[in-house]
Automatic annotation (TrEMBL):
GO MF terms, alphabetically ordered: glucuronosyl-N-acetylglucosaminyl-proteoglycan 4-alpha-N-acetylglucosaminyltransferase activity; glucuronosyltransferase activity; metal ion binding
Parts of the chain that traverse the membrane: 26-48
Lineage, top ranks: Eukaryota, Metazoa, Chordata, Craniata, Vertebrata
Enzyme class: transferase
Any one of the GO CC terms: Golgi apparatus
Protein name from the UniProt record: Exostosin-2
Membrane-topology annotation of the record: Single-pass type II membrane protein
Location relative to the cell: Endoplasmic reticulum membrane; Golgi apparatus, cis-Golgi network membrane
Coiled coil region boundaries: 258-285
Pathway info: Protein modification; protein glycosylation
Reactions listed under catalytic activity: 3-O-{[(1->4)-beta-D-GlcA-(1->4)-alpha-D-GlcNAc](n)-(1->4)-beta-D-GlcA-(1->3)-beta-D-Gal-(1->3)-beta-D-Gal-(1->4)-beta-D-Xyl}-L-seryl-[protein] + UDP-N-acetyl-alpha-D-glucosamine = 3-O-{alpha-D-GlcNAc-[(1->4)-beta-D-GlcA-(1->4)-alpha-D-GlcNAc](n)-(1->4)-beta-D-GlcA-(1->3)-beta-D-Gal-(1->3)-beta-D-Gal-(1->4)-beta-D-Xyl}-L-seryl-[protein] + UDP + H(+)
Quaternary structure and interacting proteins, as annotated: Part of the heparan sulfate polymerase, a dimeric complex composed of EXT1 and EXT2. Could also form homooligomeric complexes. Interacts with NDST1. Interacts with GALNT5.
Amino acid sequence: CIRLLFAKYSSRGPALIPRMKIKHRIYYITLFSVVLLGLIATGMFQFWPHSIESSADWTMDKRSVHDAPLVRLPVSSPIPERGDLSCRMHTCFDVYRCGYNPKNRIKVYIYPLQRFVDEVGVPISSTGLSREYNDLLSAISDSDFYTDDVSRACLFIPSIDVLNQNSLRVRETAQALAMLPRWDKGMNHLLFNMLPGGPPDYNTALDVPRDRALLAGGGFSTWTYRQGYDVSIPVYSPLSADVELPERQPGPRRYFILSSQTAIHREYRAELERLKEENGEALLLLDKCSNLSQGAASVRKRCCKGQVYDYPQILQESSFCVVLRGARLGQAALSDVLQAGCVPVILADSYILPFSEVLDWKRASVVIPEEKLSEMYTILKSIPHRQVEEMQRQAQWFWEAYFSSMKAIGLTTLQIINDRIYPYAARSYEQWNNPPVVKWASVNSPLFLPLIPPRAPGFTAVVLTYDRVESLFRVITEISKVPSLAKLLVVWNNQNKSPPEETLWPKIGVPLKVVRTKENKLSNRFFPYDEIETEAVLAIDDDIIMLTSDELQFGYEVWREFPDRLVGYPGRLHLWDHEMGKWKYESEWTNEVSMVLTGAAFYHKYFNYLYTYKMPGDIKNWVDAHMNCEDIAMNFLVANITGKAPIKVTPRKKFKCPECTALDGLSLDQTHMVERSECINKFASVFGTMPLKVVEHRADPVLYKDDFPEKLKSFPNIGSL
């Protein structure tokens, strides 16, 4: 190309400048070519990934353990300090190495493979690089966290395998760590260890001296875990890779409780055998098979009275699976149990559960103190069936997302550390704990919400109406004064009459939406409308004009502290009629309550889905046919799911509507009370139990009755009885 350009130029040359001599032309061509090649080389050097240490970067594809260079450790090599228990991210970790980057992601450097031996040539590890650690490093090197540029790294991971302390020479391993070029007393270094300690004491953290290095450990106790610094990880189960279990839907199983661990302390086994005697076939107690030869096959078998069971397949046959501490706190059995979708019952005092910094284990397990092993059966029986199914589903998802492979364990660990360094970009509680594909999009079960839902979203008021337009508009006007109201949804239940024109509706400061129903059903008030975007729902009738904005705001504040409860105003009670031998509905003024009227009550929108799609038997159809008792049905549903009573707020015990007549309101009909007693008996029969709980409790605002200036009270306008 260069020659052609110059030839073209030369053809026109005589008209512009005198023709160059041949030797000068060759000189300039050569000079131009050298400059061009220099620019290209400089650009490649500037933008091609490179590093001072990149020539020896970690990659198992290029180098095997046997090809790794040999490093001898002199006897006099320095040994790191034992480990600083006071280390926290702000004292022992240099966050400035991580810096700012648009992706808010730390960069992780893996040291090149080396074979460390002592002065006489004995390796520091009896196993070298295990398959599990190889998988872990490979997963990290293939992830977005990895960098081969040591100068850009925020976190350093040694290629020294310390997963299993049993295979290590503790002193020599510590010396090898200290020889790493970027060690700097362990600053910004991460070690992975699943089997810490050794006989006879079995320490709950790695015994290798490690200075300030972070430890991702598989058996931490509250004594050795450095909160917010170390990461508690699971003990990986090799069966996860070798056994693929068939899919099993949540629900009742053949056994209620199953114990499959083989190395249980004799005192625990004796207690489990006693529980077995008391509860019979509900509990299956397995042990290792003494009549099978030792080997890989025997690891996958369990026996009970000569009968052989396949392991871990048998775990799928039980609702709850016992996970007891062994010599170490962390047990691979926990991973097997989660994989089977069996709810783990964990009895290991002081054990820091894997990834408990971000995972809500209440959703997937039952933790019982070791001293209460004898009460285990009673404790588990008190958990509602619906909650057990949710826990089974959550347990299996925890395994799939965080336990199923060394890759999952390693990347979860790095994500937790990443969230600490970039907290403004950290994953939320929901992202960590909710499966990515949920049955009901954006709906969280209130059983497992954070302690207090956020204040910002507020609540959605759902007003069920038929044709009382004047009363409806008054209700809308009053509700609009509540500070936390986010949206108002009017459910127009009259198919023979159109709702008022848009211009006639009250002007309020929040969105107002009217939904027209296809049939006049009371259950329409509990339908999961797409327009309900908040967690909290206020169900309110179109004639409840007496509640003040302070009463409604206070009710919402109480619900925020108890998002799994029904929170309402007038309370009602169910009683057992000994003469008639059946349940009776009671609406008299009493201090005991077991229900709150949903004519004005707060609840979580999750219960709309359960009411519409999961209500037992024919209860929903019965309610719609009788045009009564939808509030009792909702009370039954919530109490059955949560095992908790509703919460009554403020002194108000009745809804008084002076303008309403007997023709206006359903609840004023003379057959109303008789039918509501029938409802309670009908629903108790369908549920197979009486889930309603009686309490003598009422929530009032602080300073409600105190002789205090009204303007200093948060809720001064609280109505009377």
